[in-house]
Specification:
207 residues; alpha/beta; Rossmann fold; six-stranded mixed beta sheet; globular; binds guanosine-5'-diphosphate
Amino acid sequence: MPFENRPNRSTEVVLVGRSNVGKSTLMRELTGHKFDTGGKPGVTRQPNHFDWNGPDFMFTDLPGFGFMSGVEEGRREQIKTDVVRYVEENADQILAGVLVVDGKAVIDIIDRHHERGNIPHDVEMFQFLQEIDVDPIVAVNKMDKVDDEDERLDELCDRLGLFPPWQQWQETICPISAKRGNIETLETALGDRFHEVKRDDLLQFVS
Ligand code: GDP
């Protein structure tokens, strides 16, 4: 097991993404709980589980991957490998994989990776989730910093292999601003997902 101490829950929603995209902020908004994530990026390498005594459900914030200043490449790769293995091993329990991206920076980062001949982490993670049938939902965060919202979201769809316009992918592409507490699009998408799999008992976690 890449990570130990996973609580014994049969249903789970995981948050994945590069470091600094706002995953902890989003987790706080979703759960109303403040997490001590341990300060420095790359230092917290364990998943942050948020579970309840009664309901058989948890949110899990997985460690951020990708570039982090002061964290060497080998270690960054290891974090990503651990995240991928965690999702693979628990795929049957995971109702949704939320890929959190920085709406302001994501297109530039993707395009820069492509130019260098690399597969961008975000695109790779999105395809990986699709491949293992953990339906991805992309939480496009920090939209408060984006002026040309529709254009940005269409570009993101294009990079992820989804036909623009983005409005036809509202169950997959969710523009949010976690810091402003504006996460309704994501809560709606998760709620729809719960409903589809007949888990209306979980709607309380996204309303
Ligand atoms: P993590 O590394 O992905 O867990 O990211 P954090 O939650 O620690 O957030 C990284 C930085 O982005 C912090 O300075 C947050 O205040 C900021 N941040 C998070 N969400 C938003 C948002 O919706 N809008 C803006 N402008 N900043 C945000």
